[in-house]
Specification:
Blueprint (H helix, E strand, L loop, with lengths): L11 H4 L1 H22 L8 H4 L1 E9 L10 H17 L6 E5 L3 E7 L4 H7 L6 E11 L42 H9 L29 H12 L5 H6 L10 E8 L2 E7 L4 E2 L3 E9 L4 E8 L1 H14 L9 E5 L2 E4 L10 E5 L4 H12 L6 E10 L2 H29 L2 H27 L5 H30 L4 H33 L4 H30 L3 H4 L9 H4 L5 H15 L1
Parallel strand pairs: 5-11
Antiparallel strand pairs: 1-3, 1-13, 2-3, 4-6, 4-7, 4-10, 5-6, 8-9, 9-12, 10-11
Helix pairs in contact: 2-12, 2-15, 11-12, 11-13, 12-13, 12-15, 13-14, 13-15, 14-15
Length: 585
Amino acid sequence: MAAPKKGRRPAGGQSRPGRALALILIAMVALTGGMFWSGHTTPRLGIDLAGGTSITLKAKAEPGQESAVNETNMNTAVGIIERRVNGLGVSEAEVQTQGAENIIVNIPRGTNEKQAREQVGTTAQLYFRPVLAVTSGAPQPAPSATTSGSPSATPKPKSSASGTTAGEKSATPTATASTQGRALTEALKAPSPTPTASSSAKPKATGTPQATPKPDPATAALQQKFADLNCLDPKQRTAAGKGVKASEPTVACGEDSPGVWSKYLLGPAEVDGKDVDDAKGVLDQKRGMWIVTMDFTDAGSKKFQSITSKLSQQADPQNRFAIVLDGDVVSAPSVRQTLSASAEISGNFTQQSAQDLGNVLSYGALPLTFQTQSVDTVTAALGGDQLQAGLIAGAIGLGLVIIYLVAYYRGLSLIAILSLGVSAILTYVIMALLGPAIGFALNLPAVCGAIVAIGITADSFIVYFERIRDELREGRTLRPAVERAWPRARRTILVSDFVSFLAAAVLFIVTVGKVQGFAFTLGLTTLLDIVVVFLFTKPVMTLLARTKFFGNGHKWSGLDPKRLGAKPPLRRTRRTHAPVDAKEA
């Protein structure tokens, strides 16, 4: 029995092209069904197509810290702002530096745009500071200072709202500084400016009344600032506590209830936002209110345990610690026992404000303070005009490609057009799914990338068709020519697409902003080109090679042997010699 000829050995693609076609058909149906099931039947649009808000932030250095505005801190701020906005689910927010001290934030119109605008410039500098004194937000008379060489009047008794520490011994009638001053002095680790009855210096022999020592200038200045602070004034509330180092005492305002403010005298920070590992807004079912829960890092847990251990032994209000966010006291809870693992912030939170604060704290504080320079609303009119022009250009380019395919490849152009259609459907569906999945948004550069991909996809078809024609010119029939041409064409297509994908990947990595949209779309369509050629173009070509129109080389098939200048069939040449030799023998 003669062994089968190698030339007749059926290739997998030739014998079972239906499997590949079924596979790509199932994939298309599944992706399309997922698109309709998700409810996102159109790709998300970027700010240039959908409109939105463009915010310009300028870095502001604190006094004596001008060197803090540097490239490292600016890049860190860009990363934090980007994570904050993306954490809200905003699609394709663009955050990038402009010059040495500006950051541009582009937020497309859509879900959570308002919250994103509010959070981009929030410094989110979080501190846990011990409360030294607390009183109503209105300005009050400053604690009396000692008059040199003369006794002072007895201070008036203060109510509990004034911040007098409970359980502390009162000063002697000759005391010239209030309890607030003593608490502040202790916080500064300086000797108390107020002499007690037991520690007062003995009178001089001359009988002159003993003068009380003057308080420390820094302490006196802070006392005066605390007394003069008017938390009912929005300007003073904003300025209070700004530019103060974490290691220094300060004053701040806090809103107890809508329209009701208190002012706080606070000690040095014991814990800061860097010690917070995670934060989120949750609903406290027992109290029926929204709170923000925080989990600390290992180092933060130790710090928090230390400060709460000290505060739990104090009386009100010095058993409280203020949670200070960007200079404002958002909560000042009392401590009754030592805590370590976690903490919560309670106050006048709504669901949205609690979740927003949790989102801000989760991604850390900005290393710099930013001032909003401008907030511009971007309309989609200009982008819409450019998109329309781009689509017209793409349609013209696609039309020219189809005309060329029909004129040069005739019947083969049907395969190319069908393949382009399959590639377009897959590209559209995947872009629509990537919007809610990873936040991908279609912008003008991305549209340009999709238009460029038309040429890349068409090039793959041309490579395969020309390989088939080369086999036909060698005298082979269409069915074996289709199979023999495929390995050579496949190698060329893979190398070409690899180069295109590599260029897109490098462009995506080294660029920022909208150019990444172009690179992403180019890389996506390059991968889809390989899928379409392997699972659609090749199987369809194998099936059409079995038809009479293509198999017999019809003149409109694009595979006419005479038009291609094909040699006589190799198989027919072998048959003419063997029978003649047998008869002569």
